[in-house]
Amino acid sequence: MDKFRIHGGTPLEGRIAISGAKNSALPALAACLLTEEPVTLDRIPPVRDIRTMIQLLEHTGARLDVDGELVTVRAERLERPEAPYDLVKTMRASSLVLGPLVARTGKARVSMPGGCAIGARPINLHVSALEQLGAEIRQSHGYVEATAPQGLKGGLVQFDRITVTGTEDVLMAAVLAQGETVIGNAAREPEVQDLADLLNKMGARIEGAGTSTIRVQGVDRLHGAEHTIIADRIEAGTFLIAGAMTRSDLVIENCVPEHLDALVVKLRQAGAEVSLEGSSALRVRASSRLRATDITTEEYPGFATDLQAQYMAMMTLAEGISFVTETIFENRFMHTQELGRMGANIRVEGRQAIVAGVAELTGAQVIASDLRASASLVLAGLVARGETVVDRVYHIDRGYERIEEKLARVGARIERES
Ligand code: EPZ
Known about the structure:
This protein is of the alpha/beta class. It has two domains: about 5-20 and about 230-415, UDP-n-acetylglucosamine1-carboxyvinyl-transferase, Chain (Alpha-beta prism), CATH 3.65.10; about 20-225, Enolpyruvate transferase domain (UDP-n-acetylglucosamine1-carboxyvinyl-transferase, Chain). About 30% of the residues lie in helices and about 25% in strands. It has helices at about 20-30, 50-60, 85-90, 100-105, 125-130, 165-175, 190-200, 235-245, 260-270, 310-315, 335-340, 370-385, 395, 405-410; strands spanning about 5, 15, 40, 65, 70-75, 80-85, 105-110, 135-140, 145, 155-160, 180-185, 205, 215, 225-230, 250-255, 275, 280-285, 295, 320-325, 345-350, 350-355, 365, 385-390, 415. It starts with a strand and ends with a strand. The site of ligand EPZ has 24 residues, from helix 1, helix 5, helix 6 and helix 12.
């Protein structure tokens, strides 16, 4: 099991290039199941979750050519419209094939995701949304089995609560449904917009992606297309936070600055300087101790829950007491115990973590528990006095492309041990 060995205390300097967004690449790959023609996607990040999704598409019968970040999917015949347990258990986002498989083949059998470290994460909202489009769904033996022998029919889908992959799942089903579908209380994440852009290039008729109400006019079939995935705003945000907490001067390039507005406002309030460098780069500078600044995670365009752990790592050294409130997942504070072992002073009360800034963190042996918690431990290691060893870094490899190489290139003392 790989580990990272990190020696803290060196400021970072230079430029970091951002990869394509994992959370946009995953639905985009699933969308390729909607047509028998080839779809080519560029800027697919070579991370573990993507490899899992590629395995899953091949399991259904699609054929894929992978050339670095360029992936072509040919879903001419889908012999096995199913997502087996052994793949779904490693990646919850496998449920993204549910909508496309039902829409394309009239049936789907998808293992229900187990819970995961950050919460129960059921897919009940995905299921009820697809039922609104006429899918008949039953659950047995740990699987969701959906059928739509006469095809799906457009309808009104109103989500009880905002769900990113739930919105994406039903959007991919609606594009081949008969008639109009209106999706209410839809997720507004940039990754939803990116998926709609791809689907429209494939011949879909979608309006309103990126707003709370998405309208879809169903079409009979979709055709092939080429599409480049948007930059990963969570990776970019992670490195902006790294630059601020290590008191560095760092340029984050090939990103979409406006996707990071909520974080940039907070970094500035905390005392870091963040400036635009052209249209696709942000520069972060900090030279003194940051000020405690509260955050509450919310659906986009609010503060991203996927940046909460990383931001908390930064607040452990800030001047004063900050309140970190997590409203999206019920158990996304696992990183607090490990940060505590490095000297952080954090108290968790329900959905709120109270972080009292300390003068320094000390390096320690820590264990990663989930993707973003492991990123927060790496960031803490960059500023802690002495050596930090982060174990189980396979969590971080799920969503970050060679993070240790990107950080080492700007001066961090970090190396991977297999
Ligand atoms: C997406 O997960 C992201 N994953 C997550 O990123 C991200 O944390 C999350 O959105 C919130 O922004 C991908 O896009 C692949 P949700 P998703 O459905 O869609 C509850 C990462 O680090 N819910 O928006 O699974 C759910 O339990 C990952 O890259 C139901 O109750 O999240 C959660 O509390 C982690 N029933 C809330 O809604 C459902 O049917 C929001 O979840 C669906 C969700």
